[in-house]
Amino acid sequence: MQEEPTALSLRRDYGSWKVQARLIYPLGISAAATANTTDDAAEPPAPDDVPPIPLEAPPSGPAYFSWDEQSQEMSPEADAQTLFSQGEDERVVDGMASLTVDESEVGYLGVASGAAMLRLLLPDAQQKRNPMHAAGLSSRPPTSNPTSQSMQQHHHWLETPLWDSLNIGAIDLDFAIDAYFCLFHQSYPMVHEPTFRAQYAQVIPRPSGRSWHALAFMIAAMGIFTVGTGPTGTDRHLFTAAKSNISIESLETGNITLVLTLTLMSNYLQKRNKPNSEYNYLGLALHMAMGLGLHKEFHDWDISPLNMEIRRRVWFCMFVFNIGAAITFGRPLAWPNKNVEVSLPLNVSDRSLTNLSWTVPTEADHVTTYSSVIMQSRFHTLANDIYTRVISMPFPSATELLHLDDSLIRRWESSVAWYREDANVLPLFATGHGIMWWRMRNFRIIMYRPYVMRRALQARSQPQDATKTFPPAVQEAYDRCVREAKLSINSISEFLVSHAPTRLAAWYALYFIFQASLIPCVCLRNEPTSPLAPSWRSQILQTLRTIQLISPVNPSAQDCYEVIQRLCGPFLHPNPNLPTSTDERNNFNTDTETTQTGTEGVTSYVSSGPN
């Protein structure tokens, strides 16, 4: 049953502009209706038992819940008298979240906090600085900006203490940043390009001190990595430069710039085969984002349409990364599935929504920079319940999986005509569009592959029982897994034939095609005389050809190639002497285990996953 929306956002006139009302849904709904959301929805009447007073208010200042809780002793200018004159650090917000009336620089404190109650009792106090907080601010010695001083001294466009040792001056930073916005940004538009470029060119001030320089280096690192057509170490140098601007003390501050930096670091580390480091960075970014209130939108919020959209884009890109990582690693969802009230980003072009926009533009009916994250978010919103069932015990029945597939995933497939798999998409958006459909097919493979494995085990234990029949639902689950694997292999192969593989496309393509190829590998090894065996051989050979196309761009491709050869080499060519004995097929588990432990490259790559 479709759930009712939990909140309505932003219906208010601000001077001559109006932020339109949009429905907000929690991300954990079982039958999410995000695809059916309309902007002209009427606000439902409030029930009689709902308090008429607002229990929490939107932020009144431009900081949007940013905070800085660094202790005074963190300042290099702090003297001994400052360090030891106070028993406690008075700048830090009270740990009980009960004494804070002024919402500026304290982070998001929701309705369950004592501060929310206090603000209702002392509404006038929100216009005044908390005396304790003000005293802490005034008692801190004025500090100069070390980044600005260093830039003036060394004349470096971006700041890092490792500039010379990493030979950053030899890197074309402009090219690297252009590369980021040309490719990675079109799938994951976390950073508002016009704003960042203006900051990079120093047309407008660069915010957040050293965190901004870390973000700039991460954008450059991801740009170099994703558009590369061969192995290079340049992106590693840029990542190291970004890390040099981040320290453990950075976690005592909170702002969107730092959230973006941590999120990009996380995704970069995953693509560099450090999945657990990626997981930790992403957790830091998520908690900081919630501390900034990115999971909330407020009624009567005096915020410009562009700033609202920037917050939404950051939140939902993080959502996609988090869910993708959970599925890749087979771990429980760490993303909050309740109490999240954020609308999806608008499907608009950057020229339709600028800092001067006074109204929310009409959404486009074609692919834009933001279409990919919108469609991925809709998909994961619908698929999260399925994933939760798949990783739980007992494993869902074939009947249940088929019902979930038909009622949720098929709804997503038909939700937007202009994003269907065979839609004509501009080359700029082709990679993101392809990845979305590969991801969907991979998810279906994950859903149904236990039934393929069960069939393989039964074929091993009962090799002579060729007439065995299966319940209709079990047979359909098996057929869907085999079909999705074939479609995935065909789609990825066709994409790489028609598009020169960049490292970004090659990363996702290799992961998804390798996962898909394991299905015909299992089937062929255990039923080599099946009428479907020629099709399975064809799929595996097609996979091997495609992997060879990827190998110059992604070194892990060669490892994947060797694994498939070890699994299916003797079975790939029709031969009257093809091994068909039970003993030969029983080598399946042994070979698989040897491959996983003996081929470090593919093990690391597959565990890293496709985020």
Automatic annotation (TrEMBL):
<dbReference type="GO" id="GO:0000981">
    <property type="term" value="F:DNA-binding transcription factor activity, RNA polymerase II-specific"/>
</dbReference>
<feature type="compositionally biased region" description="Low complexity">
    <location>
        <begin position="590"/>
        <end position="603"/>
    </location>
</feature>
<keyword id="KW-0539">Nucleus</keyword>
<dbReference type="InterPro" id="IPR007219">
    <property type="entry name" value="XnlR_reg_dom"/>
</dbReference>
<dbReference type="GO" id="GO:0005634">
    <property type="term" value="C:nucleus"/>
</dbReference>
<dbReference type="GO" id="GO:0006351">
    <property type="term" value="P:DNA-templated transcription"/>
</dbReference>
<protein>
    <submittedName>
        <fullName>Fungal-specific transcription factor domain-domain-containing protein</fullName>
    </submittedName>
</protein>
<keyword id="KW-0805">Transcription regulation</keyword>
<dbReference type="Pfam" id="PF04082">
    <property type="entry name" value="Fungal_trans"/>
</dbReference>
<feature type="compositionally biased region" description="Polar residues">
    <location>
        <begin position="140"/>
        <end position="152"/>
    </location>
</feature>
<dbReference type="GO" id="GO:0000435">
    <property type="term" value="P:positive regulation of transcription from RNA polymerase II promoter by galactose"/>
</dbReference>
<feature type="region of interest" description="Disordered">
    <location>
        <begin position="575"/>
        <end position="611"/>
    </location>
</feature>
<feature type="domain" description="Xylanolytic transcriptional activator regulatory">
    <location>
        <begin position="278"/>
        <end position="351"/>
    </location>
</feature>
<dbReference type="GO" id="GO:0008270">
    <property type="term" value="F:zinc ion binding"/>
</dbReference>
<dbReference type="InterPro" id="IPR051127">
    <property type="entry name" value="Fungal_SecMet_Regulators"/>
</dbReference>
<feature type="region of interest" description="Disordered">
    <location>
        <begin position="129"/>
        <end position="152"/>
    </location>
</feature>
<keyword id="KW-0804">Transcription</keyword>
<dbReference type="GO" id="GO:0000978">
    <property type="term" value="F:RNA polymerase II cis-regulatory region sequence-specific DNA binding"/>
</dbReference>
